[in-house]
Automatic annotation (TrEMBL):
GO molecular function, one term: pectinesterase activity
Major enzyme class: hydrolase
InterPro entries for the chain: Pectin_lyas_fold, Pectin_lyase_fold/virulence, Pectinesterase_Asp_AS, Pectinesterase_cat
Family to which this protein belongs: Belongs to the pectinesterase family.
Listed PANTHER family: ACYL-COA THIOESTER HYDROLASE YBHC-RELATED (PTHR31321), PECTINESTERASE 53-RELATED (PTHR31321:SF57)
UniProt xrefs under Gene3D superfamilies: Single-stranded right-handed beta-helix, Pectin lyase-like
Name by which UniProt lists this protein: Pectinesterase
A biological-process GO annotation: cell wall modification
Entry EC no(s): 3.1.1.11
Involved pathway(s): Glycan metabolism; pectin degradation; 2-dehydro-3-deoxy-D-gluconate from pectin: step 1/5
Protein source organism: Phytophthora fragariae
Length: 256
């Protein structure tokens, strides 16, 4: 198939055993929707090193993207990237629900449970142009391994269920890890800030909610300037984010 969406469209929604989409090296200019499936799903991007996002060969999105170049030394292998450029202003005014409008901007929209994603670069290239998601997860039991979601505002929406992000490189400036109901663990992730703002925006809505973001052994760095970034802000009254065992660069304000 020529696009990731074409491959996803061929998945059998009634099949119970694991299904896989293997993505060959390239830059894929598109939005991808993962609709509900009865089976677990694996999305695997071609890579030179499955444990290192720097070796990824797949990029998904559209618009101009500075990573449209090889990362590995393998000849004729561009990065595997899914990329596109869509923000709230591109969503029809007839869509009035804020959550739906946000989701519709996302480069990859996940609606199915039990999904594992390996070695994919995913980008929304709008930049500083308002809410513009890169990854939107509205399901449960997710794993992102050695991936690289890139955006500016609202890069990663972890909104429902359980999620693990491991050895993943997340780029953004404002509220770029956010959501209301998810239990998300970020293990050994690199977090790069490219503009002054907040890394997380937790929308936990009740004191007895299990919704929590945990960053363990993270590395925070960036180009936003010294003391320019906060680890998070409360989107709702009961916001809950834990940072532990992590390396916080000088971009992080002393108070966190």
């Amino acid at each position: 198939y020529k696009t990731v969406s074409e491959g996803v469209a061929k998945l059998n929604p009634k099949k119970k055993s694991v299904q896989m989409v293997f993505v060959r090296p390239g830059v894929y200019h598109e939005q991808v929707l993962i609709s509900p499936l009865a089976s677990p799903l694996v999305l695997q991007g071609y890579t030179c090193d499955a444990k290192n996002y720097a070796s990824n060969q797949v990029t998904i999105g559209c618009g101009r993207f500075s990573r449209d170049r090889p990362i590995c030394t393998r000849k004729s292998a561009p990065p595997v990237t899914i990329t596109q450029a869509k923000s709230q202003k591109d969503i029809p005014a007839s869509v009035t629900d804020g959550a739906a409008r946000n989701d519709m901007t996302s480069t990859v929209r996940f609606k199915s449970d039990n999904v594992k994603v390996y070695n994919l670069n995913i980008a929304n290239t709008v930049g500083n142009g308002g809410q513009s998601l890169t990854v939107s997860v509205n399901a449960t039991d997710y794993g992102f391994y050695a991936c690289n979601p890139t955006g500016y505002q609202d890069t990663v929406l972890a909104d429902k269920g359980r999620e693990l992000d491991a050895k993943t490189y997340i780029i953004g400036a404002t509220d770029f890890v956010f959501g209301r109901y998810a239990q998300a663990w970020f293990e050994s992730c690199d977090i790069e800030t490219i503009g002054a703002g907040y890394i997380t925006a937790s929308g936990r809505e009740a004191a007895n909610s299990s919704a929590t973001y945990v960053f363990n052994r993270a590395r925070v760095f960036g180009k936003s300037g010294v003391n320019s970034t906060s680890l998070g802000r409360p989107w709702r009254q009961y916001a809950k984010v834990i940072w532990q065992n992590s390396e916080l660069g000088d971009v992080v304000k002393p108070e966190g």
